[in-house]
Amino acid sequence: MVMMRLLLVCLLPFTACALDLGLPTDNDALRRGDNEAFYQPTVEGSIESGMFGCARRGGHRFHEGIDVRCLHRDKRGEPLDEVRAVADGAVAFVNAKPGLSNYGRYILLAHRWDGVEVYTLYAHLAEVAAELKLGQAVAKGQRIGTLGHSTNTKEGIPRERAHLHFEVDFLFNTNFHIWYPKRDPKAPPFGNFNGLNLYGIDPAALLLATGPNPKLNFAEYVARQTVAFTVLLPPKPFPWLKLHPEQIQPVHNDAAIVAYEIGVTAWGVPIAVWPRSEAGKRLPSVARVDEAELARNGCRTLVQRDKHGWTLSQHGHEWLEILTYTP
Ligand SMILES: [Zn+2]
Questions:
Q1: Does domain 2-209 have CATH number 2.70.70.10?
Q2: Mean pLDDT of 58-83
Q3: Beta bridge partners of 63
Q4: 284 preceded by cis ω (within 30°)?
Q5: Where in the chain is the domain with CATH 2.70.70.10?
Q6: Ligand 1: distance of its center to the CA of 122 in Å?
Q7: Is 130 exposed, middle or buried (0-12, 13-18, 19+ CB in 10 A)?
Q8: How far is the CA of 270 from the centre of ligand 1 (A)?
Q9: Residue 224: closest CA among 214, 239, 237
Q10: Buried-most residue among 5, 8, 174, 213 (CB within 10 A)?
Q11: pLDDT tens digits, residue range 219-247?
Q12: 281 CA to middle of ligand 1, Å?
């Protein structure tokens, strides 16, 4: 009963419930500060190439998750590491056909942390636990699969570099399953749970910020991420506003809302929405930019500077279309 009450309180937005995440495999080197032992580098070889962010090709290529090194292998060198849910949640999606995705075989779990809808993604698996069904509840620490090297890319992932690709994501648009097949008739049957509709934050930073001790509130954690740029949008409802009501900032006067200004990380995750009663610009438009943050982490190039100032890049327009599409 006490547990039940605690659970209900934790579902309310902005209540103080410490988020205590487990690690997705036996590899705990991250929390011991041993990055060499934790991250699996790409063929580039640098430890950074296994990290989240502008970590690849000299900082020019974005990596949306972390690559966790394999610890246990059988005689043939095939990985054996158990992959586990980092928190209580429910099975949102399983892709059991590795040939359909560069994630290979993957599983997505849905969570609600301090009122915030969020997903964890576990990719390149050798196997997904057979008993798992869509919608099924999973407990923190429960085995959900085995680490592997599955992918559909031409070059593949060699057995020696088998790893868990792990993401902490936000689902962008509940209409993605309508938008994407129109654009790509050969779209894989992933519905809304296509990687293109999932935008992440740094899982390693989050795993380090939680751990056994700190009283981390996830809604506040997300709100503390750095805003790299803001975009002014027409005041038309779009799914994100329903998915993340916790981000909508209060309005202090009765003036009509003429735009939404969204604050976005360099990686493309909105972290705040301000209803605006003045816009004064053509919508959508880039309103504010943190040039230092973009210089550090701007490899996703959602915004660019041209002779008109800062604008959305072609990639940025596509990002915005995925975020705001309503049929
Ligand atoms: Zn990866």
A1: yes
A2: 94
A3: 53
A4: yes
A5: 2-209
A6: 10
A7: exposed
A8: 22
A9: 214
A10: 174
A11: 999 999 999 999 999 999 999 999 999 99
A12: 39
